[in-house]
Amino acid sequence: MFRHTALRLARPARTAPFVTHAPRRTLFSRRAARSSRPVENLNLQRLSQQSEEYHRNRRIFLWCGAIAGVVSFIYTAYKLKVELSKPAKFDTNLAPSDPLAGASAADRKVVVYDEEGDEIVPTGNSTVPTFPRRINLPSFTAPLSTTSTSEAATSPGITSPSDTTEYTLVGLGSRTVTFINLQVYVVGFYVATADIATLQNALTKKVNHMATTLVPNEREQLRSALLDPAEGEKTWDELLAAGIPARSAFRVVPVRDTDFHHLRDGFVRAIQGRAAALSGKRGQPGAAEDEAFGEAMRQFRAVFNRGSVPKRREMLLVRDETGRLSISYDAGASKKEQRPAGRQLIGVVEDERVSRALWLNYLAGKKVASEAARKSIVEGLMEFVERPVGTVASQVVPVVNAKV
């Protein structure tokens, strides 16, 4: 009886077979089934789309940052330029009625003196740094038709060197071209000192017929009229047609090497663009389409049939009391750029409409050759009309807003 029991105990125990049971799937067992087999649930297309979206967003973010940086840099530079261009304002003990304490006092250019004691006005240009405040130009006693430099220099139309007229600078600025404002030349407007009173009186009477000087609000009215394209062109056309100012000149000094043909093309385009709007004078047609005007333009073009014009060389366009245009050029070396010693007459154009149209190209209109020069000239004229008629010639005439 114990024997069978012992045998049963001595027998090796049977091991249960390894059976794998699949989990029962229910409504809530789908997530567990997915998490138990992550490799089988990879979606390569979805991963590729996520990667592309990530890099696309990253590129957009970087481009936005770069654009924002450039815009902020440009904006900061612009604001800095605006602030630096503003005139410095200092405390002053001057009375409010003092001209130097006015709102425009900080904009006035100070006339300085060079080593020889001559008055000069800074231009702000490094190539042509200064313009003379006053220049002495010879007077012409007879019409000239020659265009040769040698013939013009020996012609009886030029008086002796002692017979000269003093001209005073009213305003100056630079002629720029293209959208990058490439500077071509610096131009200054001069009026015969003896004729300033006549110009001053004409401008004053335009605003107030009873006044001999203009108060601030009247000066502002005159400034607005001269800067207005239509009104300014009409005003200057009437003044020049009436011979006011009687004698004036434009001084042109290139800031880079150029040639006469390039200057001629610019002048001719300016004259042709203004000729149709000129008012009549002495029976001449206002449209300037007659043969006499065409012949005058041919004479004007012939004056510029020359070679190169190096930088810093002076060209003078002078208009006398009859409206005749005289063109002189300094082709020689000069130790003192603001007062060249080698001026020579190269041509004369008799028809006053040529000089009037050329003057309007700088003084008024919708588009002028130099906006900086036009504004500077207007501000210089404001200095005239704020003083009694006839007292300006003996006083310092500041050049205002001469930005180049």
From TrEMBL:
Q: Which interval of the chain is the signal sequence?
A: none
| Keywords (A to Z) from UniProt | Isomerase, Membrane, Transmembrane, Transmembrane helix
Q: Which InterPro entries match?
A: Chalcone_isomerase, Chalcone_isomerase_3-sand, Chalcone_isomerase_sf
Pfam families tied to this protein: Chalcone_2
Example GO molecular function = intramolecular lyase activity
Q: Where are the transmembrane segments?
A: 60-78
The name on file for this protein is Chalcone-flavanone isomerase-domain-containing protein
Superkingdom of the organism of origin: Eukaryota
PANTHER family listed in its UniProt record: FATTY-ACID-BINDING PROTEIN 2
Tell me the organism: Chaetomium strumarium
Where the record annotates domain Chalcone isomerase, the positions are 165-378
